[in-house]
Write a structure and sequence with these properties.
Helix content is 27%, strand content 34%. It has 291 residues and is α+β, with helices and mostly antiparallel strands. It folds into 2 domains: 126 residues, Gcn5-related N-acetyltransferase (GNAT) (Aminopeptidase), CATH 3.40.630.30; 143 residues, 3-Layer(aba) Sandwich (Aminopeptidase), CATH 3.40.630.30. The protein has a 9-stranded mixed β-sheet, with helices on both faces. A 6-stranded antiparallel β-sheet has the order 1-2-4-5-7-3, with helices on both faces. The N terminus is likely disordered.
Length: 291
């Protein structure tokens, strides 16, 4: 449905409507233009979310003025996957209101969250009823491989296969709070983009996993989870240590990981493996209306 918005618009109507596949070319050009843009840290690109809703564009005379995507994934959680506009202060509230309206009729009602990756976007979130929930910290490895630790004798670590992904998704759901869970669809994308993906097994049953991505100079530990009943048995430690060994063989210049700043268990694990905080952080916001 097209909705005319006559807000300080003497030249004619502004149209707010859902994005469709026919908008792909225009969106691609728009995202590359000199606008303010926030792309979520995601397994999908902003264009790959086309086809999922809520995803809206604001147009004037068929020219895109703003775009915002907040599709739900996984169930119960929606992130601002992309927002872009040359006039963010004016147009962000309009698209936000429309996305909130769509999200509020979904059951279960999802949380709407956003990462504050840029200062202008942080200010925009704070001005529009978002509150900071926590912060993400970035850690880097010192390239000194720590000694192996005792692990369950029946434990094995092997490369992940596509057949493992449904079980990996179950482990992920059990290991993380809802805000940080990945859906099976997201994990399938992560698996296909991974440079190093391994699973930890006991008696051939997958009970933990890690997924890492790489560039020519950097390896990033993107995902690590162990079944809650088997945590504190050095399984996560060995999964990361295995990844570190692989990154050395790949001649990575840098190995990084992100984690929640208030997750003391996670921070302790990474510090024990030679990671230290780089000083880079970014806040996590949740919208108050549907928190």
């Amino acid at each position: 449905m097209e909705e005319p918005l006559r807000q300080n618009n003497p030249a004619g109507k502004i149209v707010l409507r859902p994005v469709t596949a026919s908008d792909l070319s225009g969106l691609s050009t728009f995202f590359k233009s000199p606008i303010k843009i926030q792309h979520h840290l995601d397994w999908r690109t902003s264009l790959e979310w086309v086809g999922y809703q809520p995803y809206y564009i604001l147009l004037k005379h068929n020219e895109i003025l703003a775009a915002m995507a907040t599709p739900v994934d996984p169930d119960g959680v929606a992130w601002i996957r992309v927002f872009g506009s040359p006039l963010p202060e004016r147009l962000f509230p309009i698209l936000l209101e429309k996305c909130l309206h769509d999200l509020e009729v979904i059951e279960p009602r999802p949380v709407l969250a956003a990462l504050g990756l840029q200062e202008w976007f942080v200010q925009l979130l704070e001005q529009n009823t978002f509150t900071q929930r926590q912060k993400i910290v970035v850690l880097g490895w010192d390239f000194s491989l720590r000694p192996a630790r005792p692990i369950p004798p029946e434990l094995s670590i092997r490369p992940m296969t596509a057949a493992d992904l449904p079980t990996v998704a179950t482990v992920d759901r059990m290991a993380f709070k809802p805000l940080w869970q990945n859906s099976l669809d997201a994990l399938i994308l992560a698996f296909h983009k991974a440079s190093i993906a391994t699973v930890a097994c006991i008696n051939e049953q997958v009970i933990g996993y890690q997924i890492s991505t790489s560039t020519p100079i950097n390896t990033h530990l993107a995902r690590l989870a162990v079944h809650p009943s088997l945590q504190r048995k050095n399984i996560g430690y060995e999964l990361v240590r295995n990844m570190q060994t692989a990154s050395l063989n790949m001649n990575s210049w840098q190995v990084t990981v992100n984690t929640q700043g208030d997750n003391e268990a996670s921070l302790a694990l990474y510090r024990s493996l030679g990671f230290t905080e780089t000083g880079e952080t970014f806040p996590v916001f949740v919208h108050a209306r549907i928190d």
